[in-house]
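Supplementary Text 2. Reproducibility record for the structural model of the 117-residue chain.

All settings were left at their defaults, and a single model was retained for analysis rather than an ensemble. We include the record here because the model underlies the residue-level annotations in Supplementary Table 4.
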Amino acid sequence: MKYAQIVITLLISGCSITNMIDPYGEEVKIVCETVANEGTITLTLNEETKLVGVHKTDDPAQIYDWCNSKVDSKVVGCASNGNIYIPSGPTCYTVAAHELGHVFGVPGMDRPTIGIY
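Retained model, structure tokens:
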């Protein structure tokens, strides 16, 4: 009951519920665990297959450079023209899931959301 009240409140307040890509799903594991620092892979999500360029780094300054962001911004990754630019390490999974959402056109990726997995 409490969950339903929270969902209703968020819907009324303008937030959306988005079925995001599972950060621990097979596709994200492939990106984070098998691709070295750079590579191109073929991924299928929601019955759609795409060629995705993967670029990973441990250096936040490199992410800012790739994503054309200010160094003091909160950017942790980005997607552009079928490429994702993400951190390696433990945050790879959540950032990769989000950026793959952009590549595969998951609606509402940058609006206030509650992920339902």
